[in-house]
Amino acid sequence: MAIEDATLSFEQGELVSLLGPSGCGKTTLLRIIAGLIPKTTGSVRIRGEEVDGPHPDFGFVFQTPNLMPWRHVLDNVLFPMEILRRCDARAKTRALELLGMVGLDGFHGARPHQLSGGMQQRVALCRALIHEPALLLMDEPFGALDELTRMEMNDLLLEIRARTRATVVFVTHSINEAIYLSDQVLVFSRRPARIVERLEIDLAYPRSAQTRFSPRFTALALRASRALGVVH
Amino acid sequence: MRKLIYPPLGIVLTLLLWHWVCIQFKLPTSALPTPAQVLDAAIGRWDLLLSEGWVTMKETLYGFLLALALGIPIAVAVSNSQTLNLMFSPILIALQSVPKVALAPILLVWLGLGIESKLAIAWLVAFFPIVVDTSAGLQSTPRELLELARSLRASRWQVFSKVQFPAALPFIVTGSKVAVTLAVIGAVIGEFVGSSEGLGYLLMSATSQINSPLAFAALFALSALGILAYGLVVGIEWLLSPWLPHSDERTDR
User: Are B229 and B64 in contact (CB under 8 A)?
Assistant: First the structure.
């Protein structure tokens, strides 16, 4: 068994980070929540309703953008709507709005390979949001980006969240990223993964670069580091 | 500019060297005709070369299309079903190692001297690269894209038509490039073994009459045909996938 007795509950509109060392099973947990891999024991419920198997009410963002190189940016964003057979004019308008929101106005006709890594991940974010999922599952989505782009994307995510009120589960191994983004951070130990710490992040919104240097931020980062065993 | 000048210059130099070798060593025309003699034969018999070339082209393209029509569905079936994969992959691999050209006499006995036997040989040699590359392409679909489709409860057909097949397309094109070149060889082998028309036949009959200039002209016509067939596939690739930035980076086998 990869994960031991973990009980997670998320409030509507909350951003929860799963923080832990690489290979501890955070991603596995995310895939179980998404219904992509069968759980051996335990249960996943949304609004009290048991989830068994894949659920279209979820949006997915992966470590790599995984855009389809044969589709234009707009068609990449619309992919979920095609699968759900809801690809109408309204969907298209919404796709263009989302692209505008992530700062990709005018790029809807571009091919993925013409975009930088950060821009591709923005498109992937739009693709995850297009069908207005109740829950956004993000698996180290900014891990492959450089530090500056990553900080930009963090701010973008906070902004999107404020606008869409989506509930987000965010997997990361960056302490700073987890604290900066979240309302709640769950710190996992090495395999077999257990939740070793549950941090309520009471930093005020809107958060900005200043937040990263506040004493409260540092204190929370220290607690997370202790829980991870990085600092004794 | 350099790219415009040097390739033709290379061709001219090679032709001059060829000519020089013929003259210098007083080679008999039957052994090695000069470029001028070959050109003479090509111009004198252009209608013959064209009509025989047309026959070989038809055999090549039909064989190739047949290989596509049968190869792609088989690759799809084998890569989508664990059972079929386990049952038939070993046979496919075993068959692939049979020297297909050696089957030419047998196919001739079965199908006769007409176009059918050439078509069958061209099909046979073109078939395997298409099956192999198509299955490789279908299996190369990123796992995350399949998960994304699955998380949206996509049907099998949606997964195939919207994700797997487009992802495999570059591989299918790569396989097709190899296949079409092999199909030319298949068609010519078929003509060698038994035929009364086609460039392969012309080549055989010209050499048996010690008409080397014509044989060489047929040889050049054959390579022109190969380039043309390859060019057709490249053209189709260009039409199908202008989005492919990787097609130059990928190494063709």
Answer: yes
